[in-house]
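Q: Structure tokens for this one, please.
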Amino acid sequence: LMEKESKQSLLLVISLDKGLCGGYNSGLAKAVRNFFKENDPKDFKLLFIGKKTRDLLKSEFNTGKTYTFEKAEPTFDETRKLAGELADQFKMGEVG
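A: Here is the predicted structure, written as tokens:
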């Protein structure tokens, strides 16, 4: 049962923590900027998997939690924990 209903949506940006994929991270940052040209950033809770794209955007947008995994490919338990946290935000009405 939801305590409150939020009009805010969640935008989860999946980038990298490290590596030589600068083109991917900068392209993803550009896509997020373009998305927010058409959508109000205040309507979204912005979360990240990986630090690289977050670092490119943190001076422009209010960035929320950043999830990192021990290795490049997360374990089932890590992804299950992440999915549970995101689902809890919906169930608690933090995002709609």
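A few notes: The mean pLDDT is 88. Strands lie at 9-14, 44-49, 63-67.
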